[in-house]
Amino acid sequence: MLDDFLIRAGLAGVGVSLATGPLGSFVLWRRMAYFGDATAHAAILGVALALATDLPVPFGTLAVAVVMAVTVATLAARGWAVDTTLGVLSHGALALGLVAISFVHGVHTSLEAYLFGDILAVSKGDLAYIWGGAVLVLGLLAWRWQALLTSTVNADLAQADGINPDRERLILTLALAVVVAVALKVVGALLIAAMLVIPAAAARALSRGPEQMAALASGIGALACLLGLGLSLWKDTPAGPSIVTAAAGLFAMAALFGRMRRH
User: Fold this and answer.
1) Using H for helix, E for strand and C for coil, what is the string for 236-249?
2) Nearest Cα to 17, choosing from 245, 238, 233, 194?
3) Cβ–Cβ < 8 Å for 23, 175
4) DSSP string spanning the chain?
5) Where are the domains of the chain?
6) Are 188 and 240 in contact (CB under 8 A)?
7) CA-CA distance, 203 to 210, in Å (whole number)?
8) Are 232 and 72 in contact (CB under 8 A)?
9) How many angstroms separate the first and last alpha carbons of the chain?
10) CATH classification number, 4-255, choose in 3.90.550.10, 1.10.3720.10, 1.10.3470.10, 3.40.228.10
């Protein structure tokens, strides 16, 4: 029989994957991989603020991730160079967060848990938070799915249909901020972008449409979480990196199968 902490870890991984699958698909379609990285790095600053003010860490990470998402979306809408802006904000927020945590006295916590995740320490409360965030993101994406797709394919066509591309970009970035805050406990700030990108990239090699790609990405992400946990249990490896390693292996197999199918 599996121990309770392994069951909670598996459920947490599946919950995160349900949200990262469709959202990661949009990240690939819009070429926003670096944006996910920047939002995840900013979450470390949220951890520092939460520890300094005795607030729950999830609230601190969510608040800072939302601020980062809105800031980047606003600057992009005003014509700023997105890659340069993301580079400055991403590394600046991560460094500031690490420095800020060093000034928080009396806090006995391991930075490694926030950088690389600590899925094996997920509690029932964490599980409720993760699944609540995942359901919220899925509901938001389902509500705006067609508008998001249209504005992703062609912003001019979206405007002609009465869709505001800037509003859809903001909705997507807010959803990304929620996923970052939810996934921090599972894979950590340094690996969140990998769980957004790798399962979606694997699904793209196997799918024939956007809906199929989003569903496959969620399934591949969930499978990667379970395989990674199995590897961690078997070889006593870090759980977060093991999950990403499993996802990378699934991507390699999906890419190979997709290439064989095309030829």
Assistant:
1) CCCHHHHHHHHHHH
2) 194
3) yes
4) ---HHHHHHHHHHHHHHHHHHHHHHHHHHTT-HHHHHHHHHHHHHHHHHHHHHT--HHHHHHHHHHHHHHHHHHHHHTT--HHHHHHHHHHHHHHHHHHHHHT-TT----HHHHHH--GGG--HHHHHHHHHHHHHHHHHHHHTHHHHHHHHH-HHHHHHTT--HHHHHHHHHHHHHHHHHHHHHHH-TTTHHHHHHHHHHHHHTT-SSHHHHHHHHHHHHHHHHHHHHHHHHHH---HHHHHHHHHHHHHHHHHHHHHHHH-
5) 4-255
6) yes
7) 10
8) no
9) 44
10) 1.10.3470.10
Cβ neighbours for 174, distance < 8 A, ≥ 6 positions apart: 66, 69, 70, 140
Q: What is the pTM of this model?
A: 0.90
Tokens read off for 229: 């946990």
Question: pLDDT per position in the chain (263 positions), as tens?
Answer: 457 888 999 999 999 999 999 999 999 998 887 777 888 888 888 888 888 888 888 888 889 988 887 887 777 777 776 677 778 888 888 899 888 888 877 665 667 788 888 898 899 999 999 999 999 999 999 999 999 999 998 888 888 888 998 889 888 988 998 998 889 888 888 889 899 999 999 999 999 899 999 999 999 999 999 999 999 999 999 999 999 999 999 999 999 998 888 77
Structure tokens at 18: 């349900």
Read off φ and ψ for residue 106, nearest 5 degrees: 80, 10
249: exposed, middle or buried (C-beta count within 10 Å: 0-12, 13-18, 19+)?
Answer: middle
